[in-house]
Amino acid sequence: MAPVARKNEMTGGAAPMPAGSGSVAVVTASYAGDFERCRLLCETLDRHVTGFDSHMILVAGHDVRLFRQLESQHRIVVDERDLLPGWLHVVRDPASLFSRHLWLSFRTKPLRGWHVQQLRRIAIAGHVASDALLYCDSDVLFLRAFDCVSLWQSAGLRFLRREGALADPKLEEQRRWSANAARALGIEDSPASMADYIATVIAWRRDTLAEMCAHIEKTHGRHWVEVVASTRKFSECMLYGRFVDDVLDGAGHSPTADELCRIYWEGPEPREAELTDFVAGMSPGQVAVGLQSFVGTDLASIRRLIEAA
């Protein structure tokens, strides 16, 4: 996959774009265990979402052949080996009887697949021409019409920020992710930021991602992957959010606390009637639902939910 924008090139700061003027690509980082859920995402995205250039599915090299089934005129599968540095190597994990994978190098902590999915989401910015990237997790379903052009607003790109959310005592792990993001960005974290930036459908500016990576490398004198993955406790959403707020002072972004996707984060596997009630609880501004794959919702029930929506 030939890059159309040089990786980590400084852009001179994110400048606001007039509403509707920026192009958008949709990005999904996935893996074999979520393949059927990703298929459902693709079906609902094709049915309800407009205004985007392409849909890119980012996977490990050993999953490329499987995901090629989902390719279409506007959908491509991207091998992580075309995105991440060559010194990051994937191996079978003996601790899982070789059923799972580890990503190893002398420069980072040993990484699991969910860590590397986050790195792919950042790295893709150096390989696309679209002005913005709309990230959708594999377990997201679009149930209402959504035009990606609406992500561009008068002050810039729609930017999710839930101010004060991390004050919740239950979110200790998220506070650690935020603190580690501050460390990677070389910014003061005292008093600690209480803003949360995490969502399963979220938009980022490509030029801001490139500038963020360059900022990290300039600050630490090392590759941005090496810096971010020096700890296993990191969140790409926290990293981007802290960069926008604490380094760019919000330039080029239009903040909102309203999420595009309603998430079923945790709890017992929902029954079909409970799924119907969950969808009925979507707010007027929400266009998708996310049913976390680890909850184990039956795929046949999900497909019936899609057909009824």
Question: What's the structural blueprint in terms of helices and strands?
Answer:
Layout: E1 24-29, H1 35-48, E2 49-50, E3 55-59, H2 64-67, E4 75-79, E5 89-92, E6 101-104, H3 113-123, E7 132-136, E8 140-142, E9 146-147, E10 152-153, E11 156-160, H4 172-185, E12 201-205, H5 206-220, H6 224-228, H7 236-247, E13 253-256, E14 261-264, H8 272-280, E15 288-291, H9 299-308
Parallel strand pairs: 1-3, 1-7, 2-9, 3-4, 11-13, 14-15
Antiparallel strand pairs: 5-6, 7-12, 8-15, 10-11
- Based on secondary structure, the structural category is alpha/beta
Which strand order do you get reading across the main beta sheet?
4-3-1-7-12
Biggest sheet character: 5 strands, mixed
Distance between the termini: 37 Å
Instruction: State the helicity in percent bands.
Output: 25-40%
Low-confidence stretches: 1-20
Described by its quaternary structure, the protein is single chain
Number of strands: 15
Percent of residues in β-strands: 15-25%
The residue-averaged pLDDT reads: 89
Which series of helices and strands comes N to C? EHEEHEEEHEEEEEHEHHHEEHEH
- The Rg value, from CA coordinates, equals 19 Å
**Overall morphology:** globular
Number of helices: 9
Account of the protein in words:
By secondary structure, this protein is an alpha/beta fold. It has nine helices and 15 strands. It has helices at residues 35-48, 64-67, 113-123, 172-185, 206-220, 224-228, 236-247, 272-280, 299-308; strands at 24-29, 49-50, 55-59, 75-79, 89-92, 101-104, 132-136, 140-142, 146-147, 152-153, 156-160, 201-205, 253-256, 261-264, 288-291. The strands form five sheets. Strands 4-3-1-7-12 form a five-stranded mixed sheet. Helix 2 (64-67) links the parallel strand 3 and strand 4 (75-79). Helix 4 (172-185) packs across helix 7. The protein is globular and about 55 Å long. Residues 1-20 have low confidence and may be disordered.
